[in-house]
Amino acid sequence: MGQGSRIVSARRLFLAGAIGLALWLGATFLWHVTYRQGISLAVILLLDQDFPALLGSLLLLALAAPWAEGKGIALPRPTARIVVPLIVLLGMAAWGGHYALFQDYAISRDEEVARFAAAYMREGLFARPIPVEWEPYRRAIMPEFFSPFGAADYWTAAYLPVNSAIQALFWQLGDPNLAGPALLMAGLFALWRVALHLMPDRPDAVWVTVLLGFSSSQLWVTAMTPYAMTGHFALNMVWLALVLRGGVVGHITAGLVALIAAGLHQWHFPPIFIAPFILWMLLARRWTVAAFHALTLVAIVVIWAKLWPGFLMHALGAPADVRPSAGVADKVGSLFQRLGDRWQPLVNLTRYVAWNNILMVPLAMLGIAAMRWRTMIRGQEIALPLALGCLAGSLLALAQGYGWGFRYAHGFIGPFCLLAGLGWARFRPQGALRPLLIGLVITGLASSFLVWRTHVFVEPYAASHRLIDSSEADVVLVDPRGGLYVTDLVRGRNGVPGKPMVMNLGMLTLEQVDMLCQSYVVELFDRAEFRPLGVPLARWNLGRMDALRAHMKEEGCDRPVQPPLPETFEDALNAADNAM
């Protein structure tokens, strides 16, 4: 301790963070690797990206502990003139990162479906009509994440429409990939405004809050993608800023923001964020405000779980192919089933820590410790709903598949940063920012490593998509056996299925393959093509597909995907890498 019992020394903060992280990391490795509790995609990414980054970070944190205390740097007051340009620069970096890091490619099925819906919304449609000639093959073309309503005649995304609608709007303005960066900027701006409201007399704590958000790799890398989670971060922070502003206008506008946020992709995310604040309002005896926001939660369920599916049924037709899964009972039942089957807190929260500032969690724990119990039960501690939300977001550690960090807790990065700022304001001397500077340097080094490993992981899939997209065949059949998540390469161009029409071979019958081979120019994309491009190996054997491939060979319908012939001699030299 430093000046009295209220000050927590940076040395102790660093050592506590390093020890806690080492214990958590050790438990994660033992559970998921040593005892092999299922080698999922999350564990693959953990070993390739997060484990090395965190190991290096905790070592640097421990080594830096003896020199952590002190002023370090003097920052000016966090005014709009300084903070807003930084936010704009970060948004521009996220936009460029979509092309530089992700190579203009959305790797997961979730992202592709969001872009698919944005494409038909941009055309003024609620769904994409399936061309009659492709109806028998509709499930091989759209293998998963499709809405059941009118599914025999329409392709419709399974997710709610707001995230795709935002992308469609930016598409009309020039580039759908601007949607994520714009939402990131809105969320960071709101985070800054909330920090100013909560800590007006501690500009250093405001800087801590804002810089923890700025340095979150999860925030700005996810903003490079079509994931809806950037929208959840942004609208959660905007909602909180409006609630703290207060007044009739502030609360009504916050209610509208909550309704929009619930329609981003799944309606249950905003209620998890908002419910602790309703408790906080009740503790403060703000009955009217609490009732209004409780009614907002009811409206969320009515609009997005009842009226929206009813609208789709009326507009598109009765459910087909699969049962509807948008109802309240279905959603709650699915959530509890996944908590039982796919709850993985160790690996998911490890990924969350790795992709955020190394000091975010230790400082957030100080924010929780800063609460005074007597004022808390009177609803005077904003840290209470922030902490309850962070706890809920962390406990809902369901398997996410792809994700840069842990995206199901993405909407709680803002609350974590605010708790960290509150903890700093309570337990750290004003202006002693050296530990923040050291944390930013360590986080920057870890982020550089994570970005590099992400590029290495995405590159083979982006190259595979480009090869498929360059085919001049009518149909490309993807045989995913032998490759990790090759099924996600079944997609159209910019969200629109077309020539070549890409299909999952494993979802076709022998008769369907014969019809395709007789009626269209067909090419195959299998391990012979994707392995040289670097797609990771995976054990996946289907005897039925062996027979299917043997039959295609007999029929002469197994020509591999070939890029188009070069049009000029110079193009030929470039294609041959100037070997001549």
Automatic annotation (TrEMBL):
TM ranges are 12-31, 51-68, 80-101, 154-171, 178-199, 205-225, 237-261, 267-283, 290-308, 352-370, 382-402, 408-425, 432-452
Its protein name is: MFS transporter
Membrane among keywords: yes
Q: Which UniProt keywords apply?
A: Membrane, Transmembrane, Transmembrane helix
Source taxonomy lineage? Bacteria, Pseudomonadati, Pseudomonadota, Alphaproteobacteria, Sphingomonadales
Keyword Transmembrane helix belongs to the record: yes
